[in-house]
Specification:
single chain, about 290 residues, alpha+beta, Alpha-Beta Plaits, 5-stranded antiparallel β-sheet, 3-stranded antiparallel β-sheet, 8 strands, elongated
Amino acid sequence: MANLFDTGASLISSLIIFLITIVSAQIILALIDKFVKKTKLGIDPTHYNFFMHFLRAVIYVFGLAIAVYNIPQLRALSVSILAGAGVLTVILGFASQQAFSNIVSGVFIALFKPIRVGDRIKIGLEVAGVVEDINLRHTLIKTFENKRIIIPNSVLSEQVIENSNLGEDKVCKFIEFGVSYDSDLDQAVKIMRQETEKHPNNVDNRTKQEKERGEPKVQVRVIGFGESSVNLRAYAWAADPKSGTIMSWDLNKRIKDRFDEEGIEIPFPHRTIVYKKTDENTHPKKGNRSLP
């Protein structure tokens, strides 16, 4: 009876210790967050978020270890487990290989910063959005459709990532149109240049030497010939990826409207369908025939 009472008391005390651990973690993290925001230290958001996740994990592990050690039965069991530590290490090694890989990859991401919190990234052809969080296990990405995508850090570290915020924010958008061979090519080039230069998001990316030579603010080139079109491309510069994307969408409509006004044709495929009339004498209808 006494042993049962001691076990119950140990379980209750361990539960209290674990609850205190959770509350303590919340209080400590809240105080650190309040201090950082109040002092305005200018800490990198990626490093800060990763540190907070790491600190929370350390506090939980420490509190859980104390709670387990407080129960005599589990304490005795831990001694027996340590006797077979070699086998246990191998088992845990296989079981936690992926989890450990995610943690190591998360540390590398936080240290070398190929991506940071707030970066606009694109992974392959499917995933594009803004990095919201990087923790010990995974990276959280907010797509432009306001959905959240969770990618394990080990998977992310093996991908080719297009980071629009890494280095210079300024971007060049390709505005491409195809015009018919009968259209006035010089007029089409002029329209594309005028509409691009008039857009408020367009910035002048010319060097001092290019300005002295009188080169236009927006370059428009003939980039190739299609089956039914001459393909043109305008090089439109913007201050950042977001304004560049909006500019390219606006220019698609504005240039199309100007082409319609100026009589510049944008070709599209034509198909000719030929109907052949069946000759009943040549192709008799199928049916039963009597034998002679």
